[in-house]
Amino acid sequence: MRYVSADGMQEYLGENYFDWEDSVGDADRALEDCETRLLAYIIPNAPQCEEQIAAFCRAVYAQLEYESGEAASELKDMPSGLTGFTVNGFSATLDANSGDAASRAGLCRSAFAELLYSGLLYRGVISC
After folding, report:
1. Which residue pairs, CB below 8 angstroms and at least 24 apart, start in 106-110?
2. Where do the structural domains in the chain lie, given as residue ranges?
C-alpha cells in the first residue's frame, strides 16, 4: 500500500474500527485492494500533493466502509445471473464479469466527493 494504512482506517472510523476489521477478515488486503481500484479512478493515477493524498486516503476509507456496510451486503444476495434491472424508468446495468459485491456497489458518494473536490477525477483540474 502506497497511501493508505490500517492506522489511517482506524483514525477514520474511530470506535467502529474493530467492528469493521472483524467484518472484512483481512484488513490489510481489503485496504490494498480498494486503494488499487481507486487509483484507477483518478487522473493522473497518483495524488500530486499532501492535500490530494489526504483526500485520496479519505476516499479509500469511505469506500471500504461503504463496501462492508449494508449496501454491499444486500448486493451479495443478488442472483449471480442478474445483469441489470429497471424500476420506474430508472435502469442499471451490472458488470456481468464481476462476481464480487464491491464491484457491483460502485463508487460511494463520499469517495466520489473527496476525489472530485481534490481535483483527482478530471484531467486539468489540479487543486495543488
Report:
1. 107/38, 107/41, 107/63, 108/62, 108/63, 108/66, 108/67, 108/71, 110/58, 110/59, 110/62, 110/63, 110/66
2. 6-105+112-117
3-class SS string, 35-98: HHHHHCCCCCCCCCCHHHHHHHHHHHHHHHHHHCCHHHHHHHCCCCCCCEEEECCEEEECCCCC
Q: What is the pTM of this model?
A: 0.73
User: Tens of pLDDT along 114-128?
Assistant: 998 888 887 656 667
Task: Give the CA distances from residue 126 to residues 2, 9, 59, 65, 118, in Å, rounded to whole numbers and listed in that order.
Answer: 20, 25, 17, 27, 7
